């Protein structure tokens, strides 16, 4: 198989990678398909254009020109970088380049506008159908009146909207050294499917080092959401580090993609509200019920309890249960469940009781009436951390 090209004619090249370097500005790596690229050549790639300022090879050696099949780094792009895979073509002058780019941008905007209209119309139709269904359900429940009968009829808030407000959010700002790395990370983040646990928001993503604008954006959203500026192989200048520290913005730098993903999963997990589990830590039996005067008209009921096993702590949740009648198959009755006011043993206030101790316990509710053989259960509330249910493919 013989492949060949010509060094003559207008230049055509394929963009391989794009980045933003502090000393060179917007640069990209390309492979020349045909023609000979020289300093001063004007290129158009998609909706980007530029005039070649410098040419260098993979060893950072400055080149005067580059012919077919030569990989070369090109600087001199204006405003924005061409994406990888885009074809770059030579044009005769800057005026022509600007006209081509403007035409392509307008065409792209029209295409996006048409696509957005289709999406908007589809969502509107879905919203109309959902709204009609909700109205019908509320009407059946008697929550709202027929249309036109009561303009002031009360309607319940949308449950999905209420739930969405209660879901925590994590907002990040992402900066990468090259466009290829940014696209790879975007592809990973596009697989995020745990929105019911934590909403992941990308406030900004781009190529090149972090800037003051990034820090200002992170500081603005930091008051509402947890915000992090994540840098992947993009250098962070000391001035930016100092400024971030003064603004209270967290900066984190990574050089391996899986470490960035692991850290992101940690941050998402930290935002999930832990589940509160109740664990039975002690049990006892009421052996005596009596009332004490507390300076008010109504006497304070007190339960004399023997601790059968475990420990009973004032800070824990107490449950008083009366057993039902076995002959009549009555169910157990919960007399009280919650915190207690005081706990004493032999006239001394204590905070904790253990197995075989006899204690007196009082609660705030003076209407509770205890009886002998009532059962007492004590629960400790434990916060169980949750894990984010997001496992990107390959990680």
TrEMBL record:
GO MF terms, alphabetically ordered: GTP binding; translation initiation factor activity
Entry keyword tRNA processing: no
Domain Translation initiation factor IF-, first and last residues per copy: 160-265
Domain of life of the native organism: Eukaryota
Ligase recorded as keyword: no
One Pfam family it belongs to: IF-2
Entry keywords, A to Z: GTP-binding, Initiation factor, Nucleotide-binding, Protein biosynthesis
Chain ranges passing through the membrane: none
All copies of domain Elongation factor G-like, residue ranges: 12-79
InterPro entries assigned: EF-G-like_DII, IF2_II, TIF_IF2, TIF_IF2_dom3, TIF_IF2_dom3_sf, Transl_B-barrel_sf
GO cellular component annotations of the record: cytoplasm
Family: Belongs to the TRAFAC class translation factor GTPase superfamily. Classic translation factor GTPase family. IF-2 subfamily.
PANTHER family: TRANSLATION INITIATION FACTOR IF-2, MITOCHONDRIAL, TRANSLATION INITIATION FACTOR IF-2-RELATED
Name under which the protein is recorded: Uncharacterized protein
Native source species: Meloidogyne enterolobii
């Amino acid at each position: 198989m013989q492949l060949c090209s010509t060094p003559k004619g207008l230049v055509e090249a394929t963009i391989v990678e794009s980045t933003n370097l502090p000393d060179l500005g917007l640069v990209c790596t390309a492979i020349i398909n045909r023609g000979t690229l020289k300093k001063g050549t004007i290129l158009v790639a998609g909706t980007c254009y530029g005039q070649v300022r410098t040419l260098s090879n993979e060893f950072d050696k400055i080149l005067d020109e580059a012919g077919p099949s030569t990989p070369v780094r090109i600087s001199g792009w204006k405003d924005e970088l061409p994406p990888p895979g885009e074809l770059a073509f030579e044009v005769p002058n800057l005026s022509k380049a600007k006209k081509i780019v403007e035409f392509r941008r307008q065409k792209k905007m029209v295409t996006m506008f048409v696509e957005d209209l289709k999406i908007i119309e589809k969502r509107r139709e879905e919203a109309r159908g959902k709204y009609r269904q909700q109205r019908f359900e509320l009407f059946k429940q008697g929550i709202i009146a027929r249309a036109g009968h009561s303009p002031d009829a009360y309607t319940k808030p949308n449950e999905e909207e209420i739930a969405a407000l209660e879901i925590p959010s994590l907002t990040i700002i992402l900066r990468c050294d090259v466009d290829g790395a940014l696209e790879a990370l975007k592809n990973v983040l596009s697989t995020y499917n745990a929105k019911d646990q934590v909403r992941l928001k990308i406030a900004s993503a781009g190529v090149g080092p972090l800037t003051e604008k990034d820090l200002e954006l992170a500081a603005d959203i930091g008051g509402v959401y947890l915000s992090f500026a994540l840098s992947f192989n993009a250098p962070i200048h000391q001035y930016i580090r100092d400024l971030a520290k003064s603004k209270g913005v967290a900066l984190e730098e990574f050089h391996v993609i899986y470490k960035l993903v692991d850290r992101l999963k940690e941050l998402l997990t930290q935002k999930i509200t832990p589940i509160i589990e109740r664990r039975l830590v002690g049990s006892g039996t009421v052996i005596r019920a009596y009332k004490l005067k507390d300076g008010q008209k109504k006497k304070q009921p007190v339960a004399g309890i023997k601790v059968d096993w475990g420990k009973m702590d004032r800070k824990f949740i107490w449950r008083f249960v009366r057993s039902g009648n076995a002959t009549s198959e009555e169910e157990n009755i919960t007399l009280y469940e919650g915190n207690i006011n005081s706990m004493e043993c032999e006239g001394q206030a204590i905070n904790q009781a253990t197995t075989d101790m006899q204690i007196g316990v009082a609660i705030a509710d003076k209407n509770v009436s205890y009886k002998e053989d009532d059962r007492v259960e004590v629960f400790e509330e434990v916060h169980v951390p949750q894990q984010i249910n997001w496992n990107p493919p390959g990680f």
